[in-house]
Design goal:
Layout lengths: L5 E7 L3 E8 L8 E4 L6 H16 L5 E5 L2 E3 L4 E4 L11 H9 L3 E5 H12 L8 E6 L3 E7 L2 E3 L22 H4 L1 H9 L20 H9 L3 H25 L3 E6 L5 H15 L2 H5 L2 E4 L6 H8 L6
Parallel strand pairs: 1-4, 4-7, 8-11, 11-12
Antiparallel strand pairs: 1-2, 2-3, 5-6, 8-9, 9-10
Helix pairs in contact: 1-2, 3-10, 6-7, 7-8
Length: about 300
């Protein structure tokens, strides 16, 4: 890449479309953000947003797309997406290649965010890292010896599928943002002292829970702490199996990182092989809400 080259990263999430340009000197543009929904065909909407991003941030040498779901490596499409099912089977790479006439690469959003954290964030300088994201879905990604590791079929890192109890409850069933909100709404009427009780139930979302927890609300603190305990149970499995140096946790709940990371660490310590735990640092993600888009831009860079 020339010293002036740059690549475009696009994140497709449940609610938003987000774009950033990353230059070869590692400078990062201000993000372009638009709602994902506008009533149009899903593929047309994504293509339209990429056109807007190119007008504002281009020209670029390549485009990376981060999207929640399983990626079809053969045709550059989305094989399956739980959180955005309407994108399943769409050949997004082909459509955008036709628009921009540059190489286009699709990647799972957790993998992309992991690359951003490993390059610029909490995982920078670590030989290997596991990244967990707790958001609308619960995902994970491995970077081993500096390389993204996706497994035999590209399915490695399905962190939300880890069972956290003897009943087979999966982590995503209790730790995704929708399930944190569900658990909180089901209990908040039992605590008359909680500041959340001043809100209408339908107005209690993850942002309100995190804000209340950070402001000292004991009930919100408890709900976030329990979430951290669930996540820590699953992270202990990662520590025991892989003995990694660094584990980074991202997503909306890390807005209350002091509560959540402390609970994750305490539970992971309880369930991990002590020698392996002693070699592991568990950190909150630092890149922020642009992580998946930044990582999407980075995956298009040629390997040195």
């Amino acid at each position: 890449m020339s010293s002036q080259s740059k690549t475009l990263g696009i994140e497709v999430s449940g609610d938003l479309l987000r774009a950033v340009a990353v230059a070869s000197d590692d400078s990062i543009s201000e993000a372009v953000v638009e709602p994902r929904f506008d009533g149009s065909d899903p593929l047309d909407r994504i293509v339209s947003f990429v056109r807007t991003a190119l007008e504002k941030l281009g020209p670029v040498d390549a485009i990376g797309i981060a999207i929640p779901g399983l990626i079809n490596r053969q045709n550059g499409g989305v094989a399956y997406s739980v959180n955005i099912p309407e994108t399943s089977s769409l050949n997004i790479a082909e459509a955008i290649t036709g628009l921009a006439n540059v190489p286009v690469v699709l990647e799972n959003d957790a993998n992309a965010a992991a690359i951003a954290e490993f390059t610029y964030g909490a995982g920078k300088g670590s030989p290997s890292m596991f990244y967990a994201t707790i958001g609308a879905g619960v995902g994970g990604a491995f970077i081993l010896n500096g390389e993204l590791w996706e497994g035999a079929g590209g399915y490695a890192g399905e962190f939300g599928y880890i069972a956290i109890d003897s009943e087979g409850t999966r982590l995503e069933e209790v730790a995704s943002t929708a399930n944190i909100v569900r658990r909180t709404r089901s209990r908040f009427n039992r605590d008359s002292t909680s500041s959340l009780g001043k809100l209408q139930e339908e107005r209690i979302g993850i942002a309100e829970i995190v804000k209340a927890g950070e402001e000292g609300d004991e009930f919100a603190h408890l709900m976030l702490e329990r979430t951290g305990t669930y996540v820590g149970t699953a992270i202990a499995n990662v520590i025991n199996l892989l003995n990694l140096e660094t584990i980074v946790v991202g997503g909306e709940i890390t807005g209350a990182k002091d509560i959540v990371i402390e609970a994750i660490t305490a539970r992971a310590k309880e369930l991990s092989f002590a020698r392996a735990f002693a070699q592991t640092q568990i950190l909150a993600a630092t890149v922020g809400e642009d992580a998946a888009a930044i990582g999407a831009a980075l995956i298009t860079r040629p390997k040195p």
